[in-house]
Amino acid sequence: MLAVVLGACFLVSRHAEHHPMKNEQAFEGLYMHLMPAPLLKSQAHHGEGEAASEHGGEHAMGEPKDYLFAPTVGFMPAFMDGAPDLPGTQLVATNLQVFQLAAVLLIFLAFSGVPAYLRTGKGDWITRVLTGWVLFIRDEMVVPNLGKDDGRRFLPFFCALFFFIVFMNVMGLVPGSSTPTANVFVTMALALVTGVSMVGLGMAGQGPLAFWKNLVPHVPGWMWPMMFVMEVVGLIIKPFALMIRLFANMTGGHLVVLSFMGLIFFVAGAEFSQAAWGVSVPAVAFGVFIMIIEAFVAMLQAYIFTQLSCLFVGASLHPEH
Prior knowledge:
single chain; 321 residues; mainly alpha; globular
């Protein structure tokens, strides 16, 4: 598992496009690390792009980059083109995909020993801890909201959702890594999964017509149309709230840490650059303190996202509750 995390960081450090940073633009340069960076084949192109930016040139923007993965797609023209310097519409791989794939691989590696532990009671401490988390998700999150039968059926889905978010959040705290959940498009995709599950499982469990009929509780007839519109809007607002909550919390924590680090570079480029030594001590101390809080937030936001997803899907399956 450690090799997967370090391997992802190494791959990104070699192939992700670097953002040039000057002391007077310290905050802008550091904040750019929250943006997706395309993966390039050669490190040499990074230096060319930085040199062009420093001299005010724009040839780096006009010249095609040597992307590591940029296939041309002929659909979804409304989505942003990943490589505007190449003809056509490209789906470019970024550093975020590396850590998303690493999170999936970590799930398979981490849980490889859990089935044997449940059968035999033998396993290492990682297996025991993960087994405890699975039992917690089952007994405290899934079964209370979906019921015993539906809870056991959909337990793998919610476990995968929880640990996928946890591993992405935690890997984002490793130096040299990236946090996929600090990108709104990633959290939007996760929220869409919950939204589709709400509607799809609700229609499958209740019936296509019964699901839409049961959206509105027993109310006077003249209120039914208005309540129906409000409940349909609620089906959109609930996933939207999940998307914004996870994105805002993960991005906000990183912005605070980067702001403290940016103070050092900003003061170093000012007129009294010697003051950077005095600023660096409290800046690093506060940055470490926020990182400790971020470790807690990484787990908490995965719990909140999964708990609310269980609640929303359970309400779709069992409207009487």
